[in-house]
Design brief:
Layout (H helix, E strand, L loop, with lengths): L9 E5 L2 E9 L3 E7 L4 E4 L5 H14 L4 E3 L5 H4 L2 H10 L6 E6 L3 H14 L7 E6 L5 E3 L2 E7 L2 E4 L5 E4 L2 E7 L2 E5 L7 H7 L4 E5 L14 H8 L4 E5 L4
Parallel strand pairs: 4-5, 5-6, 6-7, 13-14, 14-15
Antiparallel strand pairs: 1-2, 2-3, 3-4, 8-9, 9-12, 10-11, 12-13
Bound molecules: zinc ion.
The site of zinc ion has 4 residues, from loops.
């Protein structure tokens, strides 16, 4: 079987529950918009997210987004955050912005601190950092969110594998569910959460089909994806 390469954007919709994966390419960027009847959410604001959102919903509606979900701090998942936060202030967003992120995610804490240092004197809205550690269930209006820990790591310059704070999210709205695994090696929690979901978004980021502690192979990802009603493979190296 040849390697499957996703063609972005990937779009899924059931009634008022909609998700659009603008892109998800390792080392480049991920960027996702999810909407319910009355609300809009951003997942993993990688580089380019502002342009994608501007094209998709226009500047006015970007200001209505009040919740951002971060799976982990790698640059291809958070690289667009700085300009996104700045844009909201330039456009005079008023309502607070909630950023949900895995506890201990140094990138989000650092971006936030630096951002406050530079812009606090002119910031028109409040940024609320919501760190997630233990299993919790969150509600954003009628969207239910079940974050779960996944197994993602990086390699130090000495060649040592280090696990980093990483989450997947199960989003439930109007009786339908989307399971987004973020970046992860094969992980039981993801297997559990994907099972029976209306849509599972599963990374297949391994460079080749050898199993590693960094990413999943396509075979592993498909095996998990197939337990959901529908699935997308994402984060496939091109
Ligand atoms: Zn990553």
């Amino acid at each position: 079987m040849g390697k499957y390469i996703p063609k972005y954007p990937l779009i899924w919709q059931k009634d008022d529950f909609f998700i659009k994966i603008f892109t998800s390419i390792p080392n480049l960027a991920t960027g996702i918009l999810m909407t319910t009847k009355n609300d809009k959410f951003v997942i993993d604001p990688g580089d380019g997210i502002l342009r994608y959102l501007t094209n998709e919903i226009g500047p006015k509606k970007i200001l209505e987004i009040n919740d951002i979900f971060i799976s982990h701090g790698h640059h291809d998942h958070v690289g667009g955050l700085w300009s996104y936060l700045t844009y909201l202030s330039v456009m005079k967003k008023q309502k607070p912005l909630n950023i949900y992120y895995p506890k201990g995610c140094i990138e989000i804490i650092s971006i936030h601190n630096a951002f406050q240092q530079v812009y606090s004197h002119e910031l028109t809205y409040q940024i609320k950092l919501i760190e997630i550690d233990d299993p919790v269930t969150l509600m954003c209006n009628s969207l239910k969110i079940e974050p779960f820990k996944v197994k993602h790591s990086e390699i130090t310059k000495e060649g040592i594998i280090e696990y980093i704070p990483s989450l997947g999210f199960k989003f439930i709205y109007d009786g339908k569910s989307i399971c987004y695994g973020g970046d992860t090696a094969y992980c039981e929690t993801l297997v559990e959460k994907s099972q029976g979901a209306d849509l599972a978004i599963i990374e297949a980021g391994a460079e080749d089909e050898e199993e590693t502690e960094l990413h999943m192979t396509q075979k592993q990802a498909i095996e998990i994806g197939k337990t959901a009603k529908e699935y997308f493979l994402v984060h496939v190296p091109e």
